[in-house]
TrEMBL record:
GO terms for biological process: translation. It is an enzyme of class 4 (lyase). It comes from the Bacteria. Residues 37-150 form the YbaK/aminoacyl-tRNA synthetase-associated domain. Belongs to the prolyl-tRNA editing family. YbaK/EbsC subfamily. This is Cys-tRNA(Pro)/Cys-tRNA(Cys) deacylase. InterPro entries: Prolyl-tRNA_editing_YbaK/EbsC (IPR004369), YbaK/aa-tRNA-synt-asso_dom_sf (IPR036754), YbaK/aa-tRNA-synth-assoc-dom (IPR007214). Keywords: Lyase, Protein biosynthesis. It comes from Corticimicrobacter populi. One of its GO terms (molecular function) is aminoacyl-tRNA deacylase activity. PANTHER family: CYS-TRNA(PRO)_CYS-TRNA(CYS) DEACYLASE YBAK, CYTOPLASMIC PROTEIN.
Length: 163
């Protein structure tokens, strides 16, 4: 696994530095629609430890973020039930970009343009370390998963569908 050359700051890294959160930076070559599996492959990481940041919305078009293992999918039906809404579905890419302030494929849950509730697959919090997008395509940050609760107030759910 190769640590990166320095990447210019993103809103996510600025927030993490302000909050004195320890993180490591990793850079990989972004591939359209490659997702976390491409990042995992290039960096030699366990796909289960690479966390994807998904912007979704409920039936009232209220956005939310769900953090999921890279090798799993989200059961939107279970997520809606656990969150207490009728329906949840992924946002259109341009809508997700408007809510997060990040380009799709480079979405970080940290320092989003619009404040959104964050939900996290509960087993992510049990990992010794996670790798999550740093706010730019091809840019991942390694950190302790406890940051998701302390900084984002991420609430645990059990909504993973294993690929």
């Amino acid at each position: 696994m190769s640590k990166s050359a320095h990447v210019s700051e993103t809103p996510a890294t600025r927030l993490l530095k302000q909050q004195k959160v320890a993180f490591e930076e990793y850079v990989y070559e972004y591939v359209d629609h490659g997702g976390t599996s491409e990042a995992s492959r290039q960096l030699g990481l366990d796909p289960h430890s690479v966390v994807k940041t998904l912007v979704m919305e409920d039936e009232r078009k209220q956005p939310l973020i769900i953090l999921m293992h890279g090798d799993c999918e989200v059961s939107t039906r279970n997520l809606a039930r656990q969150v207490g809404v009728k329906r949840i579905e992924p946002c259109a890419p341009e809508t997700a970009q408007r809510h997060s302030g990040y380009q799709v494929g480079g979405t970080s849950p940290f320092a989003t343009r619009k404040r959104m509730p964050v939900w996290v697959e509960s087993t992510i919090l049990d990992l010794p370390g996670i790798y999550i997008n740093g706010g730019r395509r091809g840019y991942i940050l390694g950190m302790d998963p406890a940051v998701l609760r302390s900084l984002l107030d991420a609430r645990p759910v059990q909504v993973a569908l294993v690929d």
